[in-house]
Specification:
The protein is of the alpha/beta class. 44% of the residues lie in helices and 13% in strands. It has six helices and four strands; from the N terminus they run αβαβαβαβαα. β1, α2 (58-69) and β2 (76-82) form a beta-alpha-beta unit. α2 packs parallel to α3 (89-95). The termini are far apart.
Length: 178
């Protein structure tokens, strides 16, 4: 009898959790604004620094670096920080010849986490009025920066989180990320 009660509770717990996750995913799909569908401002905007922390991202950078060259924002600085990669991340970024300037990360001090330190170093080196942080596994369309800045200006936002297209390897990632 106790086993039957426990299995029922487990079943209903999993069912409710799955239903909530599905509902969240559907709500995101229906209600989340898409940057590519928003109007883009035509007047000159603020300067932007696109900041990309990278650790062992050689495979992703092979895809991302050509996309960076196609970004259409006129006043754009692109900084890529190699965070002690063990693969060809730094060499690829250095030899790409594109718009990204390569920085080399400092050693990790006690009490810091790697990505936090990488982002802090990028922010310190940036000159833009707006700082946009972007992972190396993101795929950017040509108007990604323009659309992001337009959204921020149109809505009077000081901070903004966008979820660009990401490569998702598992069904679980696809189920919970918009």
């Amino acid at each position: 009898m106790i086993f039957h009660l426990a299995s029922n509770l487990f079943f209903w717990g999993v069912t409710v959790t799955t239903a909530v996750m599905l509902l969240g995913a559907l709500l995101n799909l229906i209600t989340a604004p898409r940057l590519e569908k928003l109007p883009v401002a035509s007047e000159k905007g603020p300067s932007v620094s696109l900041l990309i922390p990278a650790r062992n991202e050689e495979d992703n950078l092979k895809i991302l670096l050509p996309m960076l060259a196609r970004l259409d924002y006129p006043d754009l600085e692109i900084l890529l920080l190699d965070d002690d990669s063990q693969d060809g991340t730094a060499a690829l970024a250095q030899n790409a010849g594109g718009p990204a300037r390569l920085l080399h990360g400092k050693p990790l001090p006690e009490g810091w986490l790697g990505k936090n330190l990488a982002c802090a170093q990028l922010a310190e080196a940036a000159h833009g009025d707006i700082l946009i942080f972007c992972d190396a596994d993101v795929r950017l369309g040509p108007q990604a920066i323009t659309a992001t800045v337009s959204r921020m200006r149109n809505d009077g936002l000081d901070a903004f989180t966008a979820l660009p297209r990401q490569i998702m390897g598992t069904w679980a990632e696809q189920a919970v990320l918009p």
